[in-house]
Specification:
- By secondary structure, the chain is of the alpha+beta class.
- The chain has one domain: Invasion associated locus B (IalB) protein (Immunoglobulin-like, Sandwich), CATH 2.60.40.1880.
- Helices cover about 25% and strands about 35% of the residues.
- The chain is built from four helices and eleven strands.
Length: about 170
């Protein structure tokens, strides 16, 4: 089980709920915030999209209601590694669909389960994190279980500082 799944299981809450309800925000850096919660600590940087676009299968704009749309980098106290990238689109993903993240023309695949998507491995997390450090935006594309195509654009301003702060707090 990847760290995001472990955090969800341990906390009994979804990460968006933790990020929004937690009073443990320790810093806000441009477009990213850092939270620390639990014992042992879970630390995460989180951002919401600057722009969202929802379309039907033919590419026509579609009005939809979505839950929290958030992009995370997470750490668990005492666990090494580059950090874990995860995304929640605010809806259940279509079964068998792909979630992609485009950073500066480099496209990464995330693997959806329910309302969450993660990279395939810690090696992939490291590659995504390196791209996010160098990039300006991350465009996440996905498809909901109702067939809505979503494009969520996240600013990466403040990502590196948030990553370093979350990582430092969970060493």
């Amino acid at each position: 089980m990847k760290l995001g799944g472990l955090i969800l299981a341990l906390a009994g809450l979804s990460l968006p709920a933790m990020a929004q309800e937690s009073t443990n925000r320790v810093v806000s850096v441009t477009d990213w915030s850092v939270f620390v919660d639990g014992d042992p600590a879970d630390c995460w940087g989180v951002s919401s999209p600057k722009e969202t676009k929802n379309t039907d299968a033919e590419g026509r704009p579609k009005a939809v209601r979505r839950g929290d749309i958030l992009l995370f980098v997470s750490f668990h106290k005492g666990k090494g590694g580059p950090g874990e990238i995860s995304f929640t689109g605010g809806y259940p993903f279509a079964k068998g669909s792909k979630v992609t993240m485009d950073i500066g023309g480099t496209v990464f695949e995330l693997f959806p389960e329910g309302e969450w998507a993660w990279s395939g491995s810690s090696e992939d997390d490291a590659k995504i994190i390196a791209a996010m450090k160098a990039g300006a935006t991350a465009l996440v594309k996905a498809r909901s279980s109702r067939g809505t195509h979503t494009h969520d654009t996240f600013s990466l301003l403040g990502f590196t500082a948030a990553l370093e702060e979350a990582q430092k707090r969970c060493q």
